Fold this sequence. Notes:
Oligomer: heterodimer
Shape of chain B: elongated
Number of helices of chain A: 14
Shape of chain A: globular
Distance between the termini of chain A: 33 Å
Strand order of the largest sheet of chain A: 2-8-7-6-5-3-4
Mean pLDDT of chain B: 86
Largest interface: A-B, 27 and 31 residues
Structural class of chain B: alpha+beta
Low-confidence stretches of chain B: none
Radius of gyration of chain B: 28 Å
Number of helices of chain B: 11
Helix content of chain B: 40-55%
Distance between the termini of chain B: 81 Å
Radius of gyration of chain A: 22 Å
Strand content of chain A: 5-15%
Amino acid sequence: MKQAVYLDNNATTMVAPEVFEAIKPFFVERYGNPSSMHSFGGSVAREIRAARSALATLLGATPQEIVFTSGGTESDSTAILSALATNPGRREIVTTRVEHPAVLNLCKHLARAQGYTVRWLSVDKDGLLDMNEVREKISDNTAIVSVMWANNETGVLFPVNEIGEIAQEHGALMHTDAVQAVGKIPINLSELNIDFLSLSGHKLHAPKGIGALYIKKGTRFSPFVVGGHQESDRRGGTENVPGIIGIGAAAALAAKNFEDENTRVMAMRDRLQQGLLEKVPSCRINGHIEERLPNTLNIGFEYVEGEAILMRMDEKRICASSGSACTSGSLEPSHVLRAMGVPFTSVHGSIRFSLSRYNTDEEIDFVLTELPPIIEFLRSISPFGQEALNAICTVH
Amino acid sequence: MWEYSDKVKDHFFNPRNIGELQDANAVGEVGSLACGDMLKLYLKIDPDTDKIVDARFQTFGCGSAIASSSALTEMVKGKTVDEALDITNQDIADYLGGLPVEKMHCSVMGKDAFHAAVACYRGEPAPQEHEEGQLVCECFGVTDEQIRNEVRDNNLTTIEQVTNYTKAGGGCGLCHDKIEAIIQQVRGERKQAAKAEKTAPRMTNLQKIAKIQEVIEKEIRPMLQQDGGDVELIDLDGNKVFVALRGLCRSCPSSALTKGGIESKLKELVHPDLFVEEVAE
Lengths: 396, 281
């Protein structure tokens, strides 16, 4: 197998060939500025309207509620900073310990630099929130509650609508980072208590550099990027036309393939999970087995280190990622797995597989053939190898 | 993704000397499961020659930890214990064609494991138990002694470098102030040492006089006396040495040469800044 077996779709996805085709004319042929008065540019504005509409449809929103941004991080910053700016009397933010750095580090920064109080929500060993704690921490001082829809590392889903309801009771705004959820699970914002939702193009087979923020109609808003009148004065800057066309096409495609994602992709993920649990002793699933995205598997191989696994998988052209300390610049393993209290025997050896509809059964077979000997070898040179063999497999 | 050298990749994909060594007479163990890496080093040392006959390792850790362990075993084999003790973590990194800076602690782990094994062989307390020294980084269990040693040995100047080499400060970050204090302390020591070296030998007038007297006595006078001459130290003003030439030297036409000879001797043996002035009596 020469082609890479790409099982790292929570990191980024392939641009769908259909999406790529849709984008192509907007570089050399239809490069006009949508704000122009001439029809050469003006006709592009029509395409942007169509893209906005396609994305709105995927989310169960109206086109006016969609603002295009540069990606998930900008959407997160825009939502949270807007909520703080429009609610100057409220000085508290409620968020979880397992957010993506786009939210986590912004909140830490706001606490440090601007004196906001951040109320952190813990997770249990399955990565789930305690709704009592949620009720306890959201108060009339809360400006915004920011809770991710699906965790990027474990795929664990949070009950964002329920949390939004509690936020609403206290007059607080509700934001969700849904970067990993959009296109993978059903979302109908018209029925939900969510004021802001962030999403990113490159996680759903659109290009990098394009994202969107859903702003519920009637929500008071303060822009983050101030400039021209684009995006109805909510986000300045000439539109990223190819990106917007791409995310529109990807949204339409996601709506069409939604079923596939939740049946075939999920079946492949489950087969990978089952196969690894059967073939490799001493491993455990990180994250709730049910409340989870259909494409994500986070599995901890005890007594081996993640970077070593990734390097050996890479040699076989298998792409995944790890929550191990050694793969990041930092020395601490994943904040998500630590927040879940994953034992240190397996936290360093945690590997995340994230599938897409472009994966095949052959690829899963390939991983199931190649990965167990890698773990076995690394354990054979580990001073803890014997302990791994003595322990038994745990599905947690 | 880390930029690993081909040598690192080679030692990671084809590690040398793996596994337990049944008849090892020295075992060194550093790191822990909690910290994310651990190295257990086995040595077989010939007690008669002190030569390391065999070395094996078991490592739990990342690619560069495994490669550093493998390299270490190759490097120490065939050396005497004392020779191998001279291997620094930088030597291990160099052997591997370099390591990413964030991974230097892997080479330190190799060096530490070897020192622990030698301590075990010699019946000394294991160095990594760090009975002396205070715990600075609680996340990774690193003491001030360990940090000080790496700061000294590797000329570290920033907290980030200390983290790269020892892991200290890579967790919660609460110990950053303490690490900074250690860096400053070592830097202070180093500055002072450098200063001392630069002006070395920095001497008081009294010391200079004593030393000049000594050199005249032992080195210069015997030479001159052979030719029927003599020399006496009259005075010292800063670096100006006043001498009086006696005996035959006084009338010697080459007294200028003699003066030059004395000066170069004093420059060489006492202080490079000295120069000699002859006083007529």
